[in-house]
Amino acid sequence: MLSLNMRLSVFFVLVAMLPCAPVKAQSDWRGQAVVHLEASPGARVRGVPVSAVQLGPGFWTERRKVVTEVSIPTLYQEFEQRGILDNFRRLAGKQVARRGPIYTDSDVYKWMEAVAFEVQSGERRNQPLLEEAIRIVSATQEENGYLNTRYTMERLSDRHQNMLHGHELYCLGHLLQAGIAWYRATGKRDLMDVGIRFVRYLQLRFGPEKEPLYDGHPEIELALIELYRTTGDRSFLDFAGYFLNSDPRLKGRISQRDLVYTFIGKPFTERTQMEGHAVRAGYAASGAADYYLETGDDKYKGTLERLWRDLAESKVYITGGIGSRQTGEAFGEAFELPNQLAYTESCAAIANFFWNWRMLAATGDARHADLLERALYNGINSGLSLDGRLYCYRNPLELSGNSNDRIRNPWYDTTCCPPNLQRVLASLPGYLFGASSEGIAVHLYHTATLDWRLPDGQPLKIRQTTTYPLEGTVHFSVEPGRETTFELGLRIPAWSSNTKVLVNGEDVGSVQSGAYHRIRRQWKPGDRVELRLDMRVRHTLANPRVRDNVGKAAVERGPVVYCLEGLDQPDGLEPEKLALDLRGNAGAATGVPSRLLGGLPVLQHPAVEQQESPSGLYHPRQASRNWKPAQARLVPYFAFANRGFTPMQVWIPYIE
Amino acid sequence: MLSLNMRLSVFFVLVAMLPCAPVKAQSDWRGQAVVHLEASPGARVRGVPVSAVQLGPGFWTERRKVVTEVSIPTLYQEFEQRGILDNFRRLAGKQVARRGPIYTDSDVYKWMEAVAFEVQSGERRNQPLLEEAIRIVSATQEENGYLNTRYTMERLSDRHQNMLHGHELYCLGHLLQAGIAWYRATGKRDLMDVGIRFVRYLQLRFGPEKEPLYDGHPEIELALIELYRTTGDRSFLDFAGYFLNSDPRLKGRISQRDLVYTFIGKPFTERTQMEGHAVRAGYAASGAADYYLETGDDKYKGTLERLWRDLAESKVYITGGIGSRQTGEAFGEAFELPNQLAYTESCAAIANFFWNWRMLAATGDARHADLLERALYNGINSGLSLDGRLYCYRNPLELSGNSNDRIRNPWYDTTCCPPNLQRVLASLPGYLFGASSEGIAVHLYHTATLDWRLPDGQPLKIRQTTTYPLEGTVHFSVEPGRETTFELGLRIPAWSSNTKVLVNGEDVGSVQSGAYHRIRRQWKPGDRVELRLDMRVRHTLANPRVRDNVGKAAVERGPVVYCLEGLDQPDGLEPEKLALDLRGNAGAATGVPSRLLGGLPVLQHPAVEQQESPSGLYHPRQASRNWKPAQARLVPYFAFANRGFTPMQVWIPYIE
Asked: What residue spans in chain A does CATH classification 1.50.10 cover?
């Protein structure tokens, strides 16, 4: 790790060399994290490379297995069958019509990025498919660097004409991210260079003193900043800043409605709330956080924190999903969080995850890790079926069980979510640990080995062993190369009310939840730490301003949100007539582990059933209701709708 | 009234004369009701002419006054300022661009129909504006009969090219209805003949053995059947049937999605549920009910009853509003009735009203009158501000009070609702009474005088005197020309649990609610009837499948649904923290009449307030909640958002 002075001088050298300097990596490709912050002035916590973390058996390993074995190869087949790869081959001469919506290129790129992350983890099963895709894509780049299957040939005249809705730079952003992931997997620059040539093409023609440029779907910002981190070419960071600040010449050219919907068109730092299309807003915020990390610009930080509070305090579902409205796939008003109508696109939960990862890097604040984990286990994880074959576009918090409402599908015309889910799960090892100048932080718990180094360069291995989120105990073995003083930070989720930490068997005493518990000591090889998180079933209520959740509770256990599905209820009990019984011992829910549902327990929960429910849509209130004791069965939310069409509820009425 | 034999012979004569016969009215224009069923084989109850009923002072008279004095003249000004009338003048040579969406003609026609209904009631204040509009519209008809400001001049080639979304026949339908209402007001055929010439143009080119024709927004069906009733020309009824049955050549040409959205494209009798765009579905059902009334076709009746049950048992709001979803302005699934996101377009509640009027005519079943009254007092009435200047497009059942959410506006780009509200209120006298072979039915209560006749032709006056819906007592004086035996049917709403009826001061005993109480006797001039409806405050619950209403009650009084608005609550009490206290005497709500709100009482309701509400979006449940006694104030729902931006709820949490 470079010292601050060294880092600054690297900056100056690079800046002096630009924009015509030959592209040069800042650090060895083997050492680069998913979001590579080694030299980022705004970063308090940095990631570690995907390759530095080997996951052992457990929850995510099973999920990643279906991604590798099922999701990635079947999506490639879908690309072939739907003509999405032929869209590229067409540019190389194949006689076919272009198929699918304008942004299909990006779906291929996200899929490529997912496979590249697998290769970073040493999983090479899908590498031949990726190499074939790289050949197909690379063969289609124009002499001048342009590459998009839509705005070419008979549609050449549309090129750069529909910046608001055309997705040209959005596709390029995903191409860059795929190229970077492939470079970090193998050291091969081929795909990344394809993307860079496209960027150079743009930089020649567009920018502050040239023609104005923008894209109505943020994504290029994130990608350019990662490209800057990978290559050291500051013009990429400046180009990202140009997009985030919005070209002043755009003023008045984008309608008020589109300013809200697209989250572009005015400087990011003028934003005051999360609004409009949730994925766009989430990607814009992620890109802006990247920009803050590289520039330390406090105006960005102020805006990011205001937006994050707006999200966390009024616009995020308990699943970590975001985007309440189908119309515009958009945020609603504050506290507008309907359950059945929740739009909560998988990609939006992913955007929330990306953004919180960057906010965590910028602040070290455990709130961001909490929200990131919430999105990961629930609103993201729900998007991929247990067998890896089907995907959710929407992830609602309630379903009526209507068989016309096919919530899980192998393919969508706009198939943005499937490869997005794949790339998150494929990159997951990169999200478990963080490195700071003080030492190592553990963000997420899972059996895994970290093989990395301390700030001073000496090697460090940390092994986690746990069945989390089945149980809450995590054993760590700490293996520095030699005795060294550094900090080991363990994230204590806000939901863990009663947490124990033992170092070499000794209880450290009071542990604060919703914070990193920092153990600073002289660590020696063989040291052991034990973390015991509070996995008791919790009942969570919503702010009364969330009107749909009045009188209802959500059931949670660890990081996992539960739900009630109709088919699990005994004796044909109708789930609409059920209320949780929270009188007396509210923790009476008992768990029965089930392999079917990712190995997590099915909860048996005391409940009451309304016995004689009047028929009809509306009826006069009767003075007393007729409750009958019952048992409700709850399963993890992420597993909903995996076993057929059945009513589902996250927020469940209760009596107390 | 004609005997059945006479009616049939009129039919045969007319059929024999068609399609080339000169158009001839079936009955004098002065005797025609809003939906004129004098000769309709499927009608069990028929309306009476608007001119036969004079409203006295009271609730609807005040509402109609603002329509006449404010709404109708200001909407005309808007039409002028927005270029909507110029769209017509342009066809007569004025050098302006066409403005507004494709269907602006229909907005003018609906406004014209409203004024014509006023004239039917003898209110002539706006008649000069209407006569001017008739001149403007009539001057633009082409030689061949075509008339539409959109599909002409530079857009001539679009004519009949976009049947699915073009609204050409939709506009014609409204032109016909305006022409019919004007004819029934004055006996002048000028505007109706303009419409008829357009229909003749269509009949020459389109139809079963000619080119196929359809319109993706039902409306022409209703209008053609009313034209048939007005003129006796059976080809109009057959043309309506052609649309309702859907041209077999359309099969496979309309996507599944559009089949749902438009409610056209397959035979109406193949429909099994209310779905798609709520106004389209409601107009289609109204047109189909008209078709049943004229043909007695049992297949239509079966479909209509199935669809009506689907609506009434799972898809109608307590306000009589319909259409849950913003996306597609559409019905949701069964029981999908969100409050804040309720779309419930004013026009959809009106479609519900129209349909139920026709179902009432076809069946005589009081359920239809109940639902019609519910829509009228609540989901329709809410659409027009108390001062008559502003209109709701959406009529949600909950508002957060966000000032960006301007729910009442003087104008909408798609300004279908304002004139639709006007024409319903302007025609209202025609909906109070019904006539059958047995006598007279009273559907709606309001101070009013009916000056009409019995089936045998002898004159009959009935006078209602009441302050309903302020109080529930209605006095009737019955004045037949001479002593005669007939039936007087009084609608007893389903909500009136304890009803009294006195004839000449004598209690008739048990009175069934949700039915017509039929008094068959020999009536003599000076007979008196007194009806006492049960106006106690009611607490209504929803079927537990309506998930947003779990644990919540609606407060109703008579036909009026109440709501809670933030600004009425004392001591800055936050409405989100309020729950109605239904322990003990649930009828303890007391009323204070307020002129501000249409003269209806403001209700003071026992409530509790949650004292220390945890901040944040989600929080762990505490074992006990801290309730403090409070008083909630409720106002009629229709008056919501008339006094600024403030939170509003119809469904309110309660404790019991």
From this structure: 4-398+406-431
For A537, the closest chain B residue by CA position comes to: B620
Question: Domain B33-399+409-431 belongs to what topology?
Answer: Glycosyltransferase (1.50.10)
- The reported pTM is 0.90
Q: Give the pLDDT band (50/70/90) at residue A586.
A: low
Burial pattern B566-589, b for ≥16 Cβ within 10 A else e, equals: bebbeeebebbbbbbbbeeebeeb
Q: What angle (nearest 5°) sits at the alpha carbon of residue A154, between those of residues A153 and A157? A: 90
Q: Is A586 on the interface with B (CB under 8 A)?
A: yes
* CB neighbour burial string for A142-167, b if at least 16 within 10 angstroms, e if fewer: eeebbbbbbbbeeeeeeeeeebbebb
In CATH terms, the fold of domain A434-532 is Immunoglobulin-like (2.60.40)
Say how many Å lie between the first and final Cα of chain B, rounded: 56
**Peptide bond before residue A73 is cis, with ω within 30 degrees of 0:** no
| A209: number of Cβ within 10 Å | 4
Q: Dihedral, CA atoms, A89, A95, A101, A106, nearest 10 degrees?
A: 0
Interface of A with B in 311-340 (CB under 8 A): 312-314, 316, 318, 325-327, 332-336, 338-340
Each residue's pLDDT tens digit, A111-168: 999 999 999 999 999 999 999 999 999 999 999 999 999 999 999 999 999 999 999 9
- Comparing CA positions, the residue from A44, A45, A40 lying closest to residue A27 is A40
Residues with Cβ within 8 Å of B479's Cβ and at least 6 positions away in sequence, in order, are B460, B461, B462, B463, B525, B526
Question: Which residue ranges does chain B devote to CATH 2.60.40?
Answer: 435-532
Q: Is the dihedral of CA A537, A543, A546, A547 positive or negative?
A: positive
What is the per-residue pLDDT for B403? 85
Q: Would you call A398 an interface residue with chain B, using a CB distance cutoff of 8 Å?
A: yes
At residue A9, the pLDDT reads 38
Q: Tell me how crowded residue A337 is: count the other CB atoms within 10 A of its CB.
A: 29
Ranges in chain A annotated CATH 2.60.40? 434-532
Question: B538: nearest CA in chain A?
Answer: A620
Answer whether A586 sits within 8 Å of B623, measured CB to CB. Answer: yes
Do A318 and B618 lie within an 8 Å CB cutoff?
Answer: yes
Has residue A595 got a pLDDT over 80? no
Q: Mark yes or no for CB contact B540/A621 under 8 Å.
A: yes
- Taking alpha carbons only, the member of A321, A320, A303, A290 closest to residue A225 is A290
* Total Cβ atoms within 10 A of residue B414: 15
Q: A464 by DSSP, 3-state: which?
A: strand
Chain B CB within 8 Å of residue A406 CB: no
CATH of A4-398+406-431, one of 2.60.40, 3.40.50, 1.50.10, 1.10.540: 1.50.10
Q: Quick one: which H or E segment has residue B167?
A: none
Distance CA(A471)–CA(A559), nearest Å, equals 11
Q: Find how far residue A149's CA is from the centre of its chain.
A: 27
User: What CATH architecture is B435-532?
Assistant: Sandwich (2.60)
Give pLDDT tens digits for B453-482.
998 889 999 999 999 999 999 999 999 999
DSSP string, B58-76: SHHHHHHHHIIIIIHHHHH
Residue closest to B650 by CA, chosen among B561, B580, B568: B561
Given A332, A541, A653, which is nearest B550 (Cβ)?
A653
A168–chain B Cβ distance below 8 A for any pair? no
Positive or negative: CA dihedral B621, B627, B630, B635: positive
CA angle B301, B289, B54 (to 5 degrees): 130
* Nearest CB to A618; choose among B542, B550, B610: B542
Residues of chain B with CATH 1.50.10: 33-399+409-431
Task: Count Cβ neighbours within 10 Å for each residue of A101-115 and write b for 16 or more, e otherwise.
Answer: ebbbbbbbbbbbbbb
